[in-house]
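Anyone have tokens for Xylose operon regulatory protein? Sequence:
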Amino acid sequence: MRKRRSVALLLETSNAYSRGLLDGIIAYQREHELWSIYIGEQQRGAKPPLWFNNWQGDGIIARIETEAIATAVKRSGLPAVDVSAARRVPELPWVETNDREIARLAASHLTERGFRELAFYGEPSFNWSQWREDHFTEFARQSGCNCQVFRAASRVEKGFSWARERRRLIAWVRKLPKPIGIMACYDFGGQQLLDVCRELDIAVPEQVAVIGVDDDARLCRLCTPPLSSVIPDTHRAGYEAAKLLDQMMGGERIVGEAILIPPRGVAQRQSSDVYAVDDADVVSALRFIREHACDGISVGDVLRVVPLSRRMLEHRFQKLIGRTPHAEIMRIRIERTSRLLRETDLTLAEIARRTGFPHAEYLSVAFKRQTGQTPRGYRRDSRTSVR
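Reply: yep, here.
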């Protein structure tokens, strides 16, 4: 009989991201019925739990964000997988979100709504925030947008004052050009931005649109207005971490491997539900396309809902959005196709039916033209993104 292994989970239980990791680990454990789990209630940055000092187990999954946790994990000598971006023990394999894809989704979400002024709220003491800032500003430049950056002071530094930091944030938001779309590095930063906008009587989303990261549903709904957010695939990250640890406890040597998990999409809520385009006809066309692109519509269908000629509609789209109505329809279909390829095992024929393509062959040609990859190649690569 196979030995039932003991696994310690050094993860905080106080936020949605870590709870998503736990769900993925639980899913792997239930599928294989391999482990006895040891976990305590922890906060972010907490010291190693007392029980861990004398714990005799087989493996560890940890968010290694402090030197104390790093030291404890190394001292144990056990197989371990890191699920933190801090990289305090580089020789360990790690599973993390793909921050480039997170930034791309946030930038696309804002530019698709017509914003040409963008901004980023970050906390550079965290690697994941710095990576998201770097990629977001890169995508802003590629889209021809201006991009402002606010870098918050570290809350763990001596002398940190939230009152002083809030005054800095208020001054920054007040001076930003409007309308503007802002990406917050995580949902808590998005909540802070929305509070400041309310204090300054700035209309959200008409003057300032905000999108966060993590899709912490309770926190997002507590915001006024509710906060849009990029949805990380934490369930899959936890599952992949458990799978890696299982391989290591079975004797496989895995050193420094990085598995980067792409996000699932964007949960759109009121904080970004707007088009920053001063053209009512183009806004009407955009809304119609967003709602019906995957129903197999053509530009002719769009023309039935706006009082414009095809030539005038295309001229206004090109001027305000930077692409034609047909390109916008295809962009939405390809985005939807990408998500179904990443998150489901549906056949190409079924995906074509759900995304408005007449058949799988047409989908394959269009997808490769837009992305440079075949649908099958994209599905394979997205299932294991290694850096």
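Residues 35 and 114 are 50 Å apart (CA to CA).
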